[in-house]
């Protein structure tokens, strides 16, 4: 049994959660962005440019990100390690929405905020986790797997007693690290790390992160389709990949007839 999970958690719940995420991802993608098939990524913006004549670079990049997330959600290799899955899941969704944010600025001139929950958990938990790094064996309580326990932890700040997360027998004093705690704490605390408490991370439903991603992507695609002139004048950052030094920076983000 992993030391970062609730004692005697058989993890049978996680496979179903992962499979449900995969189904939601594929269905919602088709509904909001169309069907994306290998080597047919041009269908994503076929209503804006003619895919018979030109290659749509932006559509390819989005389709590639879609496929990578799909493969993560479809992998059985994480079914006994939901903590590792969660960290990779955050990395991928954070990177995907960050790239969308950058392209949004190029097309519309503005940078809408990245989805808040994804950004918060990616930066305070998955990546820049200094506040967690000095804590001893934090226990992960997933909303999807511990429906009876999570609601109490979600609304608790600080210490709470009477739960037996590590042994199943001895009541312990927990220190709850929920979303509100992550909002307020970025730097490590030696005082907290030295307290005789069990750090307990309360993880929101995994579907909420996926929903944020799809909503953000849908808004971006709608904006891009509504601004074909702006989109077609965006410079391609890798414009000189072909080795043609005279190639104009005004070659656009969507079209690349040389590929």
Primary descriptors:
alpha/beta; disordered C terminus; 259 residues; 4 strands; four-stranded mixed sheet
Describe the fold and architecture.
A hairpin with an 8-residue loop joins strand 2 and strand 3. The longest helix has 27 residues. This protein has a 4-stranded mixed sheet with strand order 1-4-3-2. It has one domain. With 259 residues, it is α/β, with parallel strands linked by helices. The chain has 10 helices and 4 strands; from the N terminus they run αααααβαββααβαα.
| Succession of helices and strands | HHHHHEHEEHHEHH
Main sheet: strands, sense, barrel: 4 strands, mixed
Low-confidence stretches: 232-259
How far from one another are the termini? 50 Å
| Secondary structure tally: strands | 4
Mean of pLDDT: 77
Please give the order of strands in the largest beta sheet: 1-4-3-2
Rg, please? 22 Å
Helix content: 40-55%
- Give me the number of helical elements: 10
Shape: elongated
Count of the separate structural domains: 1
The SS-based structural class is: alpha/beta
- Tell me the fraction of residues in β-strands, as a range: 5-15%
Give the secondary structure arrangement, pairings included.
Blueprint: H1 12-33, H2 57-74, H3 82-108, H4 116-126, H5 130-133, E1 139-142, H6 150-154, E2 158-163, E3 172-177, H7 179-184, H8 190-193, E4 198-203, H9 206-226, H10 228-231
Parallel strand pairs: 1-4, 3-4
Antiparallel strand pairs: 2-3
Helix pairs in contact: 1-9, 2-3, 3-4, 3-9
What would you say about this model in short?
The protein has 259 residues and is of the alpha/beta class. It contains ten helices and four strands. Helix 2 packs antiparallel against helix 3.
